[in-house]
Design a protein that fits this description.
The structure is a homotrimer. Chain A is α+β, with helices and mostly antiparallel strands. Chain A is about 25% helix and about 40% strand. Chain A is built from three helices and ten strands; from the N terminus they run E-E-H-E-E-H-E-E-H-E-E-E-E. In chain A, the strands form three sheets. Chain A has a five-stranded antiparallel sheet with strand order 1-10-3-7-8, covered by helices on one side. A three-stranded antiparallel sheet of chain A has the order 2-9-4, sandwiched between helices. The first copy, chain A, is elongated and about 50 Å long. Chain A starts with a strand and ends with a strand. Chains in contact: A-B, A-C, B-C. The interface between A and B is medium-sized, with 34 and 32 residues.
Chain lengths: ~140, ~140, ~140
Amino acid sequence: MKIRLVKLELQTRHEEELVDITSEVERVVHESGVQNGMVNILTMHNTSGIIVNEGLPCLEMDILVHLEKLAPDEGNYHHNRYLESYGRLGYNAGAHLKSILGGVHAFFPIQNGEIVKSQRQRIYFAEYDGPLARQYCIQVIGT
Amino acid sequence: MKIRLVKLELQTRHEEELVDITSEVERVVHESGVQNGMVNILTMHNTSGIIVNEGLPCLEMDILVHLEKLAPDEGNYHHNRYLESYGRLGYNAGAHLKSILGGVHAFFPIQNGEIVKSQRQRIYFAEYDGPLARQYCIQVIGT
Amino acid sequence: MKIRLVKLELQTRHEEELVDITSEVERVVHESGVQNGMVNILTMHNTSGIIVNEGLPCLEMDILVHLEKLAPDEGNYHHNRYLESYGRLGYNAGAHLKSILGGVHAFFPIQNGEIVKSQRQRIYFAEYDGPLARQYCIQVIGT
C-alpha cells in the first residue's frame, strides 16, 4: 500500500474566497503513482473549508453570499469578547460557523491513476476569514 | 488490499427526493469480499448529495422542506443568468447550495464483512434538481 | 495493512452539548500502532454529529446556538406525529436537521504515528437530543 501526504501552502487574497485547487489535487494524485485507491483533501484551519461544486464564478459568488446569509460575520456571538489565549477580541465566529456548514474535507476514489469525479465537480479551498496564509493537506492512499 | 469501485445509475422521479440506497451499499460491500475496511459513498453531481439519516417518510419530508427553507430554489442568485457553457439560463443555484449544506459523501467502517452503523442510520442519495438520470459511486477498501 | 476499529460509549449530560473527544481519538491512534494512514470518526446516531472546530467554550456555545437558529427544535415538522415504530410522538426533527447540517463524520491523516491537524482543530461529539447514552466509532487504517 502506498501512502502519500502533501501539505500545501496557499495565500488567500480576500476576506471570503473560493480557490479552485482541483489541479493541485490531480497533480498530487499523479505524482503519487497510486493507480487505485482514494484521495483525501482537508483544510488545517477552523475558519476555512473544503467545498466540492461547479466551477462557475456566478455560483462561487452565490455560495459565499449564501453562507454569509446563513452565518453572518456580524452577530451577537459569545466569541465576540476578549480572548486571553489570543491576546485580542474574538471577532470571526461567522467564519467558524461557515466552516461547519460548508464542511472541512472531501474525498474521491482513484481508478487507473485518475480521480473519479464528474467533469463539473471542482474542489475548492474555501476562505472565510482572509486574507491569510493557509495550509491544506492532500493524502493519497492506495496501490 | 482489495479495492472495489462501482458506479451506479439512478433515475430520480421528483424535483427533490431522498432515495434510500442502503441496500445497494450493503450489496456492494458483500460482493467485494472485504471483511475489514471502509466503504465510501459519493454523488457524481453538484446538485445532489449523500445524506445519512433515519428511514422515516416524515423525516425525509422534513429534511427536504428544511433544506428548501435554508437554500430556496427561488432567490436573487448570480447563477440566474445566461450561461454560455450551458447554452441556457442558470436556474438551479438553490440545488447547488443544498448540496453543500447537506454534503456530498458518506463513509462507514466495515467489520467482519458488514457495514458498521446503527440500524436506524440509512444512506440516501439526495436529489435537489430532478427528475434526472444520476450516478453515484460506492468504493470498498480493505482486506 | 493494519485496521483497528473501536466503539466508544459516551453519556451526554445536556440536551445539546459539544463533547471534546480529541484525546480519545489520539489514544486510539497511538494504541493502533499505525504510523501512516488515516483515522475516521463517526457517530452512530441520527440526532448527533461529529464536528471539527476550535476548543473555545464561547465558540462551542455559538455553534450550538446557531445550529438551533438554523434548525430549531420547535417547528411545524412532519415528524411531530405519532410514530408506530417508536410507540410515541416524534419530537426531535430539529436534532435530525442539525445532524445533517453539522455533519456526522470526520477524518484526518496519520503521519509518523500522529494525527495530522493543526493544534487548534479539536474533534467534537455533538449531542443534539440528549442527555443520552451514545456510541461513536474511531477507525484507524494504515501501515
